[in-house]
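Hi U.,

Before I forget, here's the chain from the pilot set. I'm dumping it here mostly so it's searchable later in email.
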Amino acid sequence: MKNTFRLYTVILGILISFVAVGQGELIFDDSYVHEVRITIDNVDFWSELSQNYLNKYPDVPYTMASASIDGEVTDSVGIRQKGFASHFGSQGDKKSMKIDFNHFVDVKKYDGLKKINLNNGFGDPAIQRDKLCYNIMNKAGVDAPRTSYARIYLNDQYWGLYLLVEQVDRTFLKDNFGNSNGNLFKNVGNSELEWMGQDTSQYQQIFELKTDLNVEAWENFVELMDVLNNTGDGDFKEEISKIFDVDLYLKVLAVDVATGNWDSYIEHGRNFYMYQDADSRKFNWIPWDYNFALGGTFGSDFGGPGGGGDTIEDPANCATILDGSCPYPATDSIFQLVINQDPFCCNSSWDGVCQAAYDDIVNGVNGGGGPDEGNPFSNTLAEFPVDMSNSEKVLVNRLLAVPEYKERYYQGFCRLLDDNFTTERIFPLIEQYGDLIREDVLADPNYEWTAEQFEADLDQGDQISGLKWVFEGQVASLTAQLNELFDCSSIVTTLSPLDVSINEFMAVNDSLSTIKDLAGETDDWIELYNNTDANIDLSNAFLSDNSDNPEKWQFPVGTTIRANDYLIIWADKDEDQEGLHADFKLNRDGDFIMLAEGTDVIDSLTFGFQENNLTYSRIPNGTGDYLIKDPTFGYNNEQETAVIDEYVGEIKVYPNPATQYIDVDLEKLPKAGATVTLTNGIGQTLSTTKMSSRFTRIDLNNLNGGIYLVTIQDKESRTIKTEKVIVFK
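Structure:
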């Protein structure tokens, strides 16, 4: 009853607030545990899913099912088991899964998403490591997947508490990079990013192109490998900066080192995406899979090599699922132990690390299962040095060989340890997430650990490198190392006027607005824009609404605004909330805004009375004068008006909220008419209406109460206006 009431409360809150949400904002609301009920017609559904996985890996087919997410049912979705380590390493029936809303029915979505991952928490008794690491990445300015928790039911059986993880796909790319028509590569095997010649087929064995297959995409990838491996030292900095986002990767590197993420590029050469941005043409690093970071372990007994542990369900699968090239027979007990602790070792991915683990057991090294420095199979934190200059990984070695890049890396580490990777910030999150999921974890019939081990992993147990213990030790160790390598107090940012501009602001963001912060609140906001081609550190910058007090609110240390990108600050006095929240509000009757660095004014403006839900926006974007217009939150101020201006006149969609109908009023109709499309919350088209006159009425009588999207387009499919409509029944 309590959970049902919570669900109703959430839905009612959405409707009453009249707030339209963006893609994934509902399902990745991590303030509560979601409920996902999956129904499959086959009564022997789990055997079917398991056999599909075992027989068809890695091209696992989907099984048709229906999915109810927080009470909203979506039929004809695809579901399958996923993962490699999480599948073979998990001893019970709690396997990771993937839901594809679009697999059987084209263009079907849920909450704007086509796919979503259901991770079982393998190697992670607290079920927090992925979530914490992605949180740290995002705060460091790295585009990483969103997460939330959900209790999963299969044919009305409670299957367990899972972590929902955002899929890295076109939707993710569009949300994070502003475009999705570039080239997305996924690492599917161990790779040093070494040079393997001009033949693209060599790289296709280790990387998968997830977007449209084309020759140019692979040629661009080979070019990146060529520059990375074959460019001389004198030209390397200039050439790599043209095709690779160096600053982005240096942030990822710092987080990987800080979290001891051995199951990544810096150790095994795996678990990452690279996206070649369609606009900049640069490759961008996207992190993936952090369940083994922060002291994550293998198996419910926490045994290291030689320290116990069950074998995988069927070691022979190692020889049959993949390419049949296992280096040892399936009956070899040592081989079974190694692949149980790192299932990637059972195919052509068997590498020096796998062989070393095998040899160590044979030779009696670490045979008791205790900590083994440098052994990634141990259940203790992998400790990488802050100075990674001697890394065997090509990308790390070459970047840090450039003095400027090495300094940027150290600067990023300084910011990481000052504001992000700190016990003051992380400990409350560990406690918050632990309290949120405790009841569901302890009721989980397929949870591989005990209640005592769950609690121990939140802190510290006899055999578990608990999360708080890991963070506390890492902060101390990393700080000591960094102090020997770099003077963090030397980080100074100098801005010139209008390097960063106050690009747009809204002083009256009321309950009818489509724009809300992470807490679901419609508050005043200020948008900054970086007019330069370089990332800018705002650690020494301030925002103020008082010219006599230019240092009223300082940006948190490590705050960066990326080149030619936007940054949102909420002017709401809610500094304890997630995101950037200034300690002042804007006055609708008129106010003052200043961006300053010390006593140097970077940008400022004075404004008068403001209308509800309209903004002052610079036109041209970033440099022009301020004009009153509809908000363009987080993107080019000119983008929305480009089409609207062609059809001069007022555009209305009313009433809103509505019950029986809505009217669309185009004061000036396009020459060939316009098309009005009505879609629901999961992206299904409900009606399409051609406008032959100024007014068109859309019938709502057959709809349920909820949030719907009205899109008005001209004959060339250019969007004239979009509006969220609340329907009450």
